[in-house]
Model the fold of this input.
Amino acid sequence: MVDYEVDYSEVTGKLVDCPPECGMCCLCQPEVLPEERAFFRENHPESMVKIPGPVPYFALALKKGRGSCVFLENRRCKIYDHRTAYCKQYPYHLYVSDKVKVELNLSCRGAWMGTGKDALLESKVLVDDADRRISAALVEAKDVYKQFFANCREAGVMSDPSMLRMNVSENISMFTDLAYLSRIMDMSAIEPVMNLSTLQPETRVDMESLEEAGRDLAMDSMSSDDPLSVPVYCDPEWNWNMFMAVDGKIEWMVMDDDGELHHKAFADATDIRLRVPDQGAVRVLADYVQILNGRDSFMGSVFALMDQNGYEDDMANAYYGCLAVTVMDLLWRMSMLDHFMGIGCGEDAMREAIIFYDMDRLDAPAIGAFV
Ligand code: SF4
Ligand code: SF4
Done:
């Protein structure tokens, strides 16, 4: 038996609804756990598919191999009482690093309505149900984290993660201001060890370079012709919008309930101008940066990058730099939504950009695992 405490801070005080028109999470192909397979084998043998890979697993089939789950009908689940553990978990994510944290997927529109079920109570039930998987993952992840910190110390790039978080928390406005974001991105690549308290903003913001930084990241996630791999944005009318980039051109499409894609518009990525968030948008962005700053999966994704880069960057530079780049990705996506749909750059637009973005943020490779 493994003893662990769970950090519920991200879901405490939140309410989560699930409006009948949505169904967006049923586009994320759910894994079928070994103990769940018998039900599907006996009752719906054609509904399970084997997903190849280094560790193959079973998942529910998708309409036309790329749309929503085969059990989704009129945006509701036909087998609700038998849906998989992963279906039940959405929009919560149980992240296991050297500790356990419940994170809330803000791409779920139901998480923004201020109505519905108590997120804390719902998450506690999910954590109880996932105890066996959490315990197993924790044993493995603790070893990985131990090794990671040992590597950081040996390379001389170690910082105290809780201090980094505190520094960001005390300087949130730097991460919502283009003049500081630009400087953070530059300094994280130049300075041996970054210090936010001595950082000065750019005197002249180079909008083109900022635009390019956001565009490169967003284009990276959209560069695929596979609807399963590109970002999905469920809009206020509950349309499933998808954006695919090929040769610098972005195609906006809407997927219907049968898994068919309908073309809406094209745009050259370089025609999309970076929008500057207004004051209302900055407030929403600041709240989101605080959430990211508290997420262990975000920290885990920074660690994964450090590992990938051979421990060349100090942890402070990697953390602040990654947060700044994340904000640029988000701002560029808000700009893209405005370009295609005219959402503007205010409070509502920032909320829509987060709804579009958060699922991809949570999907970033990280040291540790969602169970
Ligand atoms: S994304 Fe959220 S609101 Fe939409 S179906 Fe899933 S849980 Fe419900
Ligand atoms: S089983 Fe039901 S809840 Fe799960 S993905 Fe399929 S339709 Fe959605």
About this structure: The chain is about 45% helix and 15% strand. The longest helix spans residues 315-341.
